[in-house]
Amino acid sequence: MRSEDLRRKGRTLLFVVSGPSAVGKNSVVNEILKIDRTIGRIVTCTTREMRKSEQHGVDYFFIPKNDFLLEMARGNLIEFSEVYGNYYGVMFSAVEEKINSGEDSILVINWEGFLKIKNAIKTNVYGIFILPPSIEDLESRIKIRGEDSPEAIKRRISMARKDIAKADLYDFCFENVDMVATAKSILEKINDIRHTSP
Fold first, then answer.
1. Quick one: pLDDT band at residue 150, thresholds 50, 70, 90?
2. First CA to last CA across the chain, in angstroms?
3. Residue-level pLDDT at 1
4. Which range (14-23, 28-37, 79-88) has the least confidence?
5. Contacts for 45 with CB less than 8 Å, ≥ 6 apart
6. Sheet order of strands, 61-62 included
7. Strands (DSSP E) along 27-134, which ranges?
8. What mean pLDDT comes out for the span 167-196?
9. Burial of 168 (0-12, 13-18, 19+ CB in 10 A)
10. Which CATH architecture has domain 3-196?
């Protein structure tokens, strides 16, 4: 399955969610999926270590770096990127599975991945960008997580500013003050699109 086949078969809706590190993307998406069981999640791959709060096959497929690079070499990834020394990517097979199932789906990736996905599939792809209330709030969330050194936090904040500058590339933006409220607002927009999409 390659991008031309995805375009030809694509009849379902794909919602791509992005935002800076620690903005709560996965928490919001998990809440959306809990509320609406008719939306499927496309699980991405990563070479980074699994956090205590995460589950393999639910939040990500956590795979060794050598295996990831092999999938890259074989052309099995529709998009991939390197972030903070770790690789992230989306398998063609994962997108194909959702398209063939006829199930609307949601995918969490960065803005570069969103552009690659949109270029590959062309139609029925909608971008949703999640914003923090402020950079200060975002920095506080990163510190509370307790997984980064002061230097790493500075890098993440610098990257977050660059990510937020790309928000205009997306169809819709939502500020994440309260995770449940944000999930409900996004789901309302998703249902609006479902009802109006040809």
1. confident
2. 24
3. 45
4. 79-88
5. 60, 61, 62, 63, 68, 71, 77, 87, 88, 89, 90, 91
6. 61-62, 45-46, 86-91, 77-83
7. 40-42, 45-46, 61-62, 77-83, 86-91, 105-108, 125-131
8. 96
9. exposed
10. 3-Layer(aba) Sandwich (3.40)
Q: Delimit the domains of the chain by residue range.
A: 3-196
Which phi-psi region, left, alpha or beta, contains residue 60 (left: φ > 0; alpha: ψ -120 to 50)?
beta
Element (DSSP H or E) covering residue 60: none
For residues 108 and 33, the answer to whether their CB atoms sit within 8 Å is no
Identify which of 29, 21, 47 has the alpha carbon closest to the alpha carbon of residue 147. Answer: 21
Neighbours of 35 (CB within 10 A): 12
Which residues, 6 or more positions from 103, have their beta carbon under 8 angstroms from its beta carbon? Answer: 12, 38, 39, 40
Nearest to 156 by CA among 26, 21, 49, 18: 21
Residue 71 has pLDDT above 50, yes or no: yes
Helix, strand or coil, per DSSP, at residue 191: helix
Query: Residues near 172 by Cβ (< 8 Å), separated by ≥ 6?
Result: 126, 127, 128, 129, 186, 189
Per-residue pLDDT at 131? 97
